[in-house]
Structure formats: structure tokens, C-alpha cells
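Continuing the series of single-chain predictions for the mutant panel. This is the parent chain; the variants come on the following pages.
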Amino acid sequence: MTGKNLPESELCRCIVAEDEALAHERVRSFLAKETGVEIVAECPDGENTVIEVERLRPHLLFLDVQMPKLNGFQVLEALDREAMPEVIFTTAHDEYAIKAFEFSAVDYLLKPFSRKRFRQALTRARSRIRSASGQDGDRDLDILLRRIQSSMQSPRLLVRSSNAVLLLKAEEIDLVESAGNYVLLHSRGNRHIHRETMSAIEDRLSDAGFMRVSRSAIVNLNRVTQLRPLPSGQYAAVLADGQRVNVTCPLKELYRRLNGEPDPDP
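Parent structure:
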């Protein structure tokens, strides 16, 4: 992004590129309630969006991913870098989130988004435009990751690797192990380091069939194939891939969860 400098007194000039009538009206109505912003064009398709962005040079573009003629990503690929505004993607599908990172998007709004969530994205965009930096890439990415995660209806983990951002569905994770301020995610024979505490990830995965079986391990109960006694008198949970995880939680609770029994009455 070019990070055009925006003085406090100048209006933030926006283009709304959205072909879905209800979503278009939602963005328009939310912007109408904000001060210091101005819609300079409204585009129903990708081709028109490219033309208007290069003609009007807006500060900010609200860009639907799925549009006629050119999709949102094709729009950005077609734009002259000198004309590139800050971008907030809007879409009904979370599977496009990873690709949004490749274009340094300010934010990624999943429809139907609330006004509160919209204002968070707009505030961040205006701050980024005013700063004219675009240099705080890691921090921006971390914030965007957290916001996308909070928007997803089902538990998924967005995990950064050395050269990509991976989207792991809960059912693809076999085991979570503690590693200080990080956790190790075991998935399909691979291990991924993820910056989150055990307590936080336990809360997010507890309703997706996961259970903390020890201080340092959370297992996907659907991947537990057997429980084996240990010489110490404790048990180990054996996972489908052969991994063994020592169990220190109450066995009664583990049995109950493995059998899919409801929580006991308080």
C-alpha cells in the first residue's frame, strides 16, 4: 500500500465496491454515520472498480471478494501501485482470509458484520492512512489474524510459518502441547508453533471436541483410539497417528467426554 498521508482535517475518501445490494447498503449506511469520511464512488463490478480507483485515487477501498468481471483479488492485481489505496475486504466466506494477507489488507469483514466490527476496521484504516507508514507489517498481521479468528463461526487457527499463513480447522489438529508462551500444534504429521497460551487455546477449542488431559497437553478426543495403563498407575491416551500423551486429569471426566456424555448438572 502506498500509505497516503491523511491530515486530521482532510476527509477520508472511500470507494465502495460491492455487487450485493444488502451488503452495499450496509457499508453505505455505516459510513453515513461516521464523520470525516466521504464516498466518492460506488462500483458494482471489478472492472469498474479498477477504473474508478485509478481515476479518483481514494484513500480507502471497501472491496467485495466475489464480484462480476473481476474478483477482488484480480482488481488489486490490475491496479497501478501508485493508485493503490488501503483495502478492507468484505465477503461471506472465510476461506479467502489467507490470500487477503498477500495484499496487506487492513482488515477482512465477514458478512453480515456488525457496526461495531465495521468501526474497528474503519478506525484502523484511518490510523494507517494518517501514519503513512505501512511499515508495521508484523503488528498489522497479528491484529488482522486475531480479528479474523474472532469472526469465524467455527474454531480455526490462523498459524504463521516462515513463508505462509496456514488456516487449520479444529478437526485437523490432533494434539496441542505447551511450549512456554507458545503452543505446538500437531496436525497431519506436521508441527506448527503458534503464539497463544494453553488456557486461551483451551477455551477456544473446548466446544470442538478437545480436552486438556494434562498441564501441558490438549487432545482432540476424536483422535483418541485407546487408553493404555502405565507402570506408574496412570494412563496414556493413544492417538490415531500413534502418539502417546500422558493423562493426569481425572479418568472419570475423560471417559465421560470420550463417550459424548453431557456435562453433569451443577
